[in-house]
Design goal:
The complex is a heterodimer of chains A (314) and B (609). Chain A is mostly helical. Chain A has a domain of 214 residues. Helix content of chain A is 70%, strand content 3%. In chain A, strands 1-2 form a two-stranded antiparallel sheet. In chain A, a hairpin with a 2-residue loop joins β1 and β2. In chain A, α2 crosses α9. The termini of chain A are far apart. Chain B folds into two domains: 216 residues, no CATH class; 213 residues, P-loop containing nucleotide triphosphate hydrolases (Rossmann fold, 3-Layer(aba) Sandwich). In chain B, 56% of the residues lie in helices and 10% in strands. In chain B, the strands form two sheets. A six-stranded mixed beta sheet of chain B has the order 6-7-8-3-9-10, with helices on both faces. Chain B has a four-stranded antiparallel beta sheet with strand order 2-1-4-5, with helices on one face. In chain B, a hairpin with a 2-residue loop joins β4 and β5. In chain B, α2 packs parallel to α6. Chain B is elongated and about 100 Å long. Classes of the chains: A mainly alpha (314), B alpha/beta (609).
Chain lengths: 314, 609
């Protein structure tokens, strides 16, 4: 048995580890955005929204088409970027609401297994529907201005690139916005109420359907932003691109304690860093990291790092 | 079934399959023949998954991982053998035995991986289990990508088609293994011991309360399911039209395909799974003309299926050719009653038991002694901790402090199913029947741990297994008669009226032949006539069978009417104990139920001043 390592030596220079740290945090912030959406939906519906990963893909494609549209050429760069992000986020928010309305709402009171399988069905539909509409071959012709990685500052061999900074800054901004929405607004309070007890939320007059739709809209918008960020960092998009990041972000959500929003963010960063460092030493095992973490956390602390346990009432 | 009859049936199947094999090899279009083999392989995959998912209720998203283990183990072995001993190919008999051996090896390796995956993950439930199995499935795949010895990402090519000789084709082996899979799993889930699988799906806690070792049966379902998935993998890898595997063959999508077959066919329906495996293997081929749209159609089918008919086309329905025969019952003799009856002495003893949930002390320093043959009532206002007492006795919770003894067995360190096996049976406040199972099967489930045969004899349909089954069934029917439920024994438990459901839960508990019976509000929700009737039955169990009973009840007519002794709890502590007459006069009890009289409170308030 021989595992193929990507580097012969296991030792690492401080500069390299700093570089990996930057990469890991950038990746982690993307995972954090996706994980947040997973966790929010799980919080209100106790549903693993498998299609969440594919929303990332749709977001990336919407961003790609907006970026390719000729009118964007006329705008200054920051406005162009804003257009790409906001367009993708709005489109995906609408898609998220539509999915919830058509697929999840009719089975809300069914066993959770039914919901999970429906979610898998929606995920497959987006993937293969995407292949039919967009073609299965990956697209690599993203505009230069969207993907170029200009080093902003260099410290010896360590480089911080503009898009890394944009990804990190954008994610942090969105995370802060989320924190504000969830903890400082009425709709956020309603969301937290629904996630505590859906029936009781009905009883105190909360429009639960609207809150759930909002949750899907916000979660999907975050996934769309993450999709555009992924397209910036790895300029190759295809209809199946959301599958792996989706599952991994779910792992991040479980790692932090599913349903717990700060936990999801923490989990995202931990996973991003772990993956980047392991990938450096053994690139073949990169994809296994997330699952190894998942199994460890499920075995030793199934409620996650920050989650609280639930006891079955007898 | 007689042993000779079973062997004869097996032989007849073999010969029939061989004729089909020959006929197909001569007349059938090679592509259609390949499809037929693919149906068989998919059938094995789906049936084995149905045992895990449909019958045991454990959602697994990593079934393709087990198939991969089987395929790789078998294919790598045969490839190595043929490369080192080329003469194998010339000797048909040797070739076929090596094929059988490598296929078995594939199954065993997959079963081992099932054990390794199952032991840790099956503590998880629902969504978490689904994701953990998905994780394991992916890890298995990534491991193969990184294993250079089996070709890494390129996979294994030129796998020798060892199943093909001049006089048989690969189809025969696929058909035989598919038949074996179907038969084994059919026998497993139908025998009394195998009811355990469905009980776990319906209600794990109730299953443990009647002595079913839930972990064991869950892991067993995983191991058996993984074994047949591994065999299917080996058959797939050795298929003369395939002969090639790589890690991507066993991606997440492969698991999804198997899941869709189980779901479309119906969770817990073998007939449905067979039909779905056939239909869903052929469907993509029929849809080849619309090319890329077929996967879209597939996913839409899945969603629509879930929205319209989530239990699958056939639900739990099964094609059966044997009509339910009328079962006679075994009258309950005095001798059996004697087993239950007993001499004097303490049978259940709770000493200083405390149960704390975080800051809340639900039960504090609780003492209770039940003497053999006693009928004791446990009463108290809502939230007094009565059900918590039941839960610590039956092992649902571990008491924070104190000791619980049943005769000379210490219960408080034991697992739930062990406590039930020692002879503590209970019913639940909110009825916990196995809703989708028949009334009879609900009672049979209590015999799971006492069925006097192995799973192997059930699979081989040995005569003593059949006799044992009949004996169990007679005992169950006798108990059902006692409670007037024998007329409805083939109905699903969920379709019984409320009062019957309560009675059935008592029958299920009695079927354990318990030493102590704990009844949690047995008359809740019953009308006065039903209550009266049940009261008489409980009295009958206690007086004529000598059964020791602890009864939680809010209906004071029942408690005062039949209990010899009453224990009153409030805020987790015993506030009074004595005969029904004493309890009725006890001021503390009256205060707990009705509150303190105004004057008494006032005088108490004014006293210090």
């Amino acid at each position: 048995m021989r595992f193929v390592p990507s580097r012969g030596d296991v030792s690492m220079e401080p500069a390299q580890s700093l570089q990996l740290l930057i990469l890991g945090i950038a990746l982690g912030s993307v995972y954090a955005l996706i994980a947040l959406g997973y966790s929010m939906v799980y919080g209100v519906l106790r549903l693993i929204n498998f299609a969440h990963g594919d929303i990332i893909m749709v977001g990336a494609f919407v961003g790609y088409f907006i970026a390719k549209a000729t009118f964007t050429e006329l705008l200054p760069l920051p406005l162009r970027l804003a257009f790409v992000f906001i367009g993708a986020m709005l489109a995906c928010a609408a898609l998220g609401v539509a999915i919830e309305r058509c697929a999840y709402r009719p089975i809300r009171n069914q066993p959770r297994l039914t919901a999970l399988i429906t979610a898998i069905g929606v995920s497959l539909l987006l993937e293969y529907g995407g292949q039919v509409v967009l073609g299965a071959t990956p697209r690599q012709d993203l505009p230069e201005w969207l993907t170029s990685q200009t080093p902003l500052l260099s410290l010896g061999s360590v480089q911080v690139r503009d898009k890394q900074l944009l990804v990190l800054g954008g994610s942090l901004l969105l995370l802060a916005l989320m924190r504000f929405i969830v903890f400082n607004t009425m709709i956020g309070k309603a969301m937290r109420a629904v996630s505590h007890d859906l029936t009781a939320a009905y009883l105190v007059g909360i429009n639960v359907n609207r809150v759930i739709a909002m949750t899907f809209a916000i979660g999907s918008a975050l996934a769309a932003a993450a999709g555009v960020m992924m397209a910036m960092s790895y300029p190759k998009i295809d209809p199946l691109m959301g599958l792996m990041p989706g599952i991994k972000a779910f792992v991040a959500a479980v790692l932090g304690g599913i349903g717990d929003l700060p936990g999801a963010v923490l989990g995202g960063f931990v996973l991003g860093l772990a993956e980047t460092f392991v990938g450096y030493f053994a690139s073949g095992l990169r994809d296994a990291v997330a699952f190894a973490i998942l199994i460890l956390i499920l075995l030793f602390k199934p409620t996650g790092l920050l989650g609280k346990g639930m006891v079955e009432k007898v | 079934m007689k042993r000779s009859k079973f062997a004869l049936a097996a032989l007849a199947t073999l010969i029939a399959f061989w004729f089909i094999d020959r006929a197909c090899a001569v007349w059938l279009d090679p592509y259609a023949f390949y499809l037929l083999r693919l149906i068989g392989i998919n059938l094995m995959l789906a049936i084995s998954l149905n045992l895990i998912m449909g019958f045991t209720g454990q959602f697994s998203l990593g079934h393709a991982g087990f198939m991969a283990v089987g395929a790789y183990a078998a294919a790598a072995t045969s490839k190595w053998l043929v490369a080192h001993y080329p003469s194998i190919a010339q000797q048909p008999a040797l070739k076929l035995s090596i094929f059988l051996a490598t296929t078995l090896l594939g199954g065993v390796m997959a079963a081992i991986s099932g054990l390794v995956v199952g032991l840790p993950t099956l503590r998880l439930r629902g969504d978490y289990l689904a994701i953990a199995t998905l994780g394991f499935g992916e890890i298995i795949r990534v491991a193969f990508v990184n294993l250079e010895v089996v070709g890494g990402a390129r996979g294994l090519t030129d796998i020798p088609p060892l199943g093909e000789t001049a006089f048989v084709s690969h189809f025969l082996w696929v058909a035989l293994w598919a038949a074996v899979t179907l038969w084994v799993i059919y026998r497993l889930v139908r025998c009394t011991r195998g009811i355990a699988f469905q009980c776990i799906r319906e209600d794990e806690l109730a299953a443990a309360s009647i002595g079913i070792n839930t972990t064991y049966y869950k892991v067993l379902a995983f191991v058996v399911g993984a074994f047949f998935a591994g065999v299917a993998g080996s058959l797939f890898a050795h298929d003369p039209s395939q002969r090639y595997i790589n890690p991507d063959t066993f991606k997440f999508m492969k698991s999804i395909e198997a899941i869709v077959m189980v779901i479309v066919g119906g969770m817990g329906s073998l007939t449905g799974t067979v039909m779905a495996a056939g239909f869903l293997t052929v469907l993509p081929e029929l849809l080849r003309s619309i090319g890329e749209y077929r996967m879209v159609l597939y996913s839409v089918l899945l969603i629509v299926m879930m929205l319209m008919r989530p239990q699958g086309l056939l639900g739990g329905w099964e094609l059966t050719w044997r009509r339910r025969r009328k079962v006679d019952f075994e009258p309950i003799h005095a001798k059996q009653k004697m087993q239950l009856a007993s001499s004097d002495g303490v049978i259940l003893n709770l000493r200083n038991c405390t149960m704390q949930f975080g800051g809340l002390v639900a039960v504090r320093d609780f003492h209770l002694q039940l003497r053999k043959g006693e009928l004791v009532g446990l009463i108290g206002p809502n939230g007094a901790g009565k059900t918590t007492v039941f839960n610590i006795v039956t092992g649902v919770y571990k008491p924070t402090a104190g000791e619980i003894w049943l005769d000379s067995i210490r219960l408080d360190s034991q697992l739930q199913h062990r406590i039930a096996q020692f002879g503590v049976a209970r019913t639940f406040q909110n009825i916990r029947l196995f809703k989708e199972l028949s009334v009879l099967d609900n009672v049979r489930a209590a015999f799971v741990h006492r069925a006097g045969y192995s799973f192997l004899s059930a699979v081989l349909a040995l005569p003593h297994q059949e006799e044992e089954e009949q004996a169990i069934e007679r005992k169950c029917v006798a108990l059902l008669r006692l409670f007037g439920l024998q007329e409805r024994m083939n109905e699903k438990a969920k379709n019984l009226p409320y009062g019957d459901q309560r009675r059935l839960e008592i029958v299920r508990a009695l079927a354990l032949s318990p030493k102590v019976l704990l009844l949690d509000e047995p008359t809740a929700g019953m009308n006065p006539a039903e209550t009266q009737e049940l009261m008489q039955l409980i009295k009958h169990l206690n007086e004529d069978w000598g059964l020791t009973i602890l009864l939680i009840e809010h209906d004071m007519k029942v408690v005062m009417g039949i209990c010899q002794r009453v224990v009153v709890m409030d805020f987790g502590e015993i506030i009074a104990e004595g005969s029904p007459e004493q309890i009725q006069r006890d001021p503390k009890v009256i205060a707990a139920y009705l509150g303190e009289p105004m004057e008494a409170k006032e005088s108490a308030d004014t006293k210090p001043s």
